[in-house]
Amino acid sequence: MSAPFRTALELAAAGIPVLPLRKGKVPFANCRACLYTSCGGRPNMKTPGPCTCPAPCHGWAAATTETGVITSPAWATAWQGAGAVAYHPAGAGLTVLDLDNDEAITWAQASLPRTVVVATTRGQHWLYRGTMPSANGVRPGVDIKSRMAYARWISPGPGAPPGLLARAAGLPDAVRALVVKQRPAARPVIAAPAPAGGGQCPHRAPAYLERGIAMAEQRITDARSAVHATVYGAFLAVLSRHGRCGCLTDGHVTRLFAAAQARGETARHCTDAWTNARAKLGV
Q: How would you write the chain as a 3-class SS string?
């Protein structure tokens, strides 16, 4: 039984969801269907789950407290090659303040309430009860790991200290404010132009087109996996029904692009998907 495997079982027993890491802090690619979607590949995704992929999933979404999953054949090879154990802080109701150097630790000691401290290779992890968005570089040498993120467990002893979750202090407003202060302004939504039209109009009323756009927006917003494919499929559906008559406006396209970018798609991905859908339909 490897050391990471023993640590994982003890952390899971303490209510902390765990996953194996390769050497170099990289998750195992358990589920290729969700490597770059809302199930763990992208930290900027706004909807964390629950994951519907075959267990175990990828990245932070693979973290679990279920002994049956941790000891399953699906993870047996991963534990044999694991370089470390990681955990999903928000899954345990925690936020981790990752302090990478002495200066960051000194700042935290002077500015924040004391809480449970876990040693790391370069500094300390301060654990607080409560969850929040994860963010990197909120201060020099300071990262925040909570929702949709994982943190490595490096500490003297194999597992979680007794009563760790109960002993953690409540998440202070000063930590929450770090993410609010560094949050960038919203990016402008860039949309491709709508087709010029010229075909026969199938719309019986303006509400018909509005309903089609709204359904496409909702389809994109509800995507939990395969976001690229979902966006392309929604664009294709809209263009196949509304792309030839000229009723589809730039405003409609902007709404679709905004929905896709809210799910983590870049403007370039949106433009490529729109262009490919138009090319497929010849509009």
A: CCHHHHHHHHHHHCCCCEEEECCCCCECCCCHHHCCCCCCCCCCCCCCCCCCCCCCCCHHHHCECCHHHHCCHHHHHHHHHCCEEEECHHHHCEEEEEECCHHHHHHHHHHCCCCEEEECCCCEEEEEECCCECEEEEECCEEEEEEECCEECCCCCCCCCCCHHHHCEECCHHHHHHHHHHCCCCCCCCCCCCCCCCCCCCCCCHHHHHHHHHHHHHHHHCCCCCHHHHHHHHHHHHHHHHCCCCCCCHHHHHHHHHHHHHCCCCHHHHHHHHHHHHHHHCC
> The whole model's pTM is what?
0.60
CB of 98 within 8 A of CB of 151?
yes
Q: What tokens does 219 get?
A: 């389809």
Handedness of CA 116, 119, 120, 123 (dihedral sign): positive
Give pLDDT tens digits for 200-253. Answer: 666 656 777 888 888 898 888 887 777 888 999 999 999 988 888 878 888 888
Contacts of 229 (CB under 8 A, 6+ apart): none
**In the structure, what pLDDT confidence band is assigned to residue 128 with cuts at 50, 70 and 90?**
very high
Query: Quick one: which of 92, 65, 59 has its CA closest to 78?
Result: 59
**Dihedrals φ, ψ of 20, to 5°?**
-80, 150
